[in-house]
Design goal:
The chain is α+β, with helices and mostly antiparallel strands. Helices cover 22% and strands 28% of the residues. The chain has 2 domains: 65 residues, no CATH class; 88 residues, no CATH class. Bound molecules: zinc ion.
Length: 162
Amino acid sequence: MTEKADLTGKVFGHLTAIRKWGKAADGHTKWLCQCDCGKQTSVTTQHLTSGHTTSCGHVKRDRNHTIAPGYEAKRVDGVAVFLLSDKRKKRIDNTTGYTGVKKTHYKNGSTHYVASINVAGVHHHLGTFNTIKEALEARKAGEEKYIPKNKRGDKHDASKRS
Ligand SMILES: [Zn+2]
C-alpha cells in the first residue's frame, strides 16, 4: 500500500501535494494539493498515485485524457510566464511544473530541460535545452506547429471521443 507515502512536494499532473489534509470517509489519507490553475483541492493518496486525479477538476476527469490543446496554449501564454518570476512557489523534483517541460539530469551532474508536446495522443520531442526558458520557448513553438489553429480555445479534446 502507498497510504503511508509522503507525497509532500510531489507533482501529479497539474497538482502538487502540499500537506496531509486529514482522512477521507473511507480511511484513505487526503492531501491538500495546489493545482497549477491556482485552485487548491484535497485528493486521496490513492487517487493521486493511481493517476485518477490530476487536477482540481478544471481538466475533465479521464485517466487517459490528453489535455485539451487550447488549455495548454493558454497556460503557456499566461500562467507559465507568470510563474517564471515566482520560483519560490515551485517544488522541484523530476518535473518542472510546466506542461511539456521535464527536467533531466546527466551523469556529469548537469541539468537539462526536455521539451515535448502531446497532440491527439501523439508525442513530439521538441528538443533538450540548457535552460528552462529555452525549453518553454520550444514548447511554445511546438504548440504553434502541432496544434491546429481551429482547436485553440476548445476546452474539450474532440479527438478523445469514445
Ligand atoms: Zn485546476
